């Protein structure tokens, strides 16, 4: 997941260690990048993001272009080597609404074109609204679409690979218009699938069932099949809710939960209690 930002803050150098395309050649390009930060002072926690600085000049005269990307892996174990960061990047293009011309996204194309051995400049890490609870009995409910899957991948790595003692229930719902969108799970057969045998972990994915179906609509379909359990978990005082992705993700989630709760007022009351208890976190992008 990424969001545009003005350049600023401390900068450090990162080395591209690997760049792997995780989508077929005849579809849109999505890459899994592995970066190594050699500065030992650089540290991050799950849910944070970094900024990628693209040297200019750029349109409109700016010297550099900066875009933020969510970190898609858990914090590394203490090592003598550098800090490893993983990113999930879709090569983006934009259409000019007036001329109809197609322009490449500056940061995404810069990263997708980067080769192992290249060095790039990053900023951050930046604070995140997502906070992993310290209590391993907490239930985690994670809802995402598209690139919103990135921080949840990091959460799953942390609690099962790094800690290995998570007792709370973990539920992950993610949706997409096509199988391409679900590649942001980073090859489900060898990544999130690693956690499917955990007694506490369940992941549910939903694809669009008709042409032009939004990823949020696909997500809603998946949620509807498990709405009863989802609502039950949210009513437990130990449950933390995390929502990430396009803003329509929240609209879809609210619609499904309101129907399951018996009406919008009942759902808004429950949601407000989660917010007041600091058990509701969200991160959206346009």
TrEMBL record:
It comes from the Bacteria. Keywords: FAD, Flavoprotein, NADP, Oxidoreductase. InterPro entries: FAD-bd_FR_type (IPR017927), Flavoprot_Pyr_Nucl_cyt_Rdtase (IPR001709), FNR (IPR015701), FNR_nucleotide-bd (IPR039261), OxRdtase_FAD/NAD-bd (IPR001433), Riboflavin_synthase-like_b-brl (IPR017938). Its cofactor is FAD. Residues 9-132 form the FAD-binding FR-type domain. PANTHER family: PTHR43314. This is Oxidoreductase. It comes from Marichromatium bheemlicum.
């Amino acid at each position: 997941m990424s969001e545009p930002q003005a350049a600023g803050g401390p900068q450090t150098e990162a080395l591209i260690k690997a760049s792997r395309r995780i989508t077929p050649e005849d579809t849109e390009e999505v890459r899994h990048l592995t970066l190594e930060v050699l500065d030992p002072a650089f540290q991050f926690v799950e849910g944070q993001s970094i900024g990628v600085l693209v040297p200019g000049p750029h349109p409109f005269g700016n010297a550099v272009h900066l875009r933020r990307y969510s970190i898609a892996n858990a914090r590394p174990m203490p090592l003598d080597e550098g800090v490893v960061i993983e990113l999930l990047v879709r090569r983006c293009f934009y259409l000019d609404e007036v001329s109809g011309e197609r322009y490449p996204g500056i940061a995404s194309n810069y990263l997708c074109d980067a080769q192992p051995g290249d060095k790039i400049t990053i900023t951050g890490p930046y604070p995140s609204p997502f906070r992993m609870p310290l209590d391993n009995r907490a239930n985690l409910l994670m809802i995402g679409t598209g690139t919103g899957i990135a921080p949840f991948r990091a959460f799953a790595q942390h609690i099962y690979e790094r800690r290995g003692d998570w007792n709370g229930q973990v539920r992950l719902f993610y949706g997409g218009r096509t199988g391409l969108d679900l590649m942001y799970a980073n090859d489900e057969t060898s990544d999130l699938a690693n956690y499917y045998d955990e007694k506490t972990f369940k992941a549910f994915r939903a694809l669009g069932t008709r042409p032009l179906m939004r990823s949020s609509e696909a997500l809603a379909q998946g949620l509807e099949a498990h709405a009863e359990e989802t609502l039950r978990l949210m009513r437990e005082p130990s449950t933390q809710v995390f929502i990430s992705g396009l803003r329509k993700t929240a609209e879809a989630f609210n619609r499904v939960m309101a129907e399951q709760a018996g009406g919008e007022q009942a759902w808004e009351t429950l949601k407000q209690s989660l917010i007041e208890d600091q058990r509701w976190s969200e991160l959206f992008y346009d």
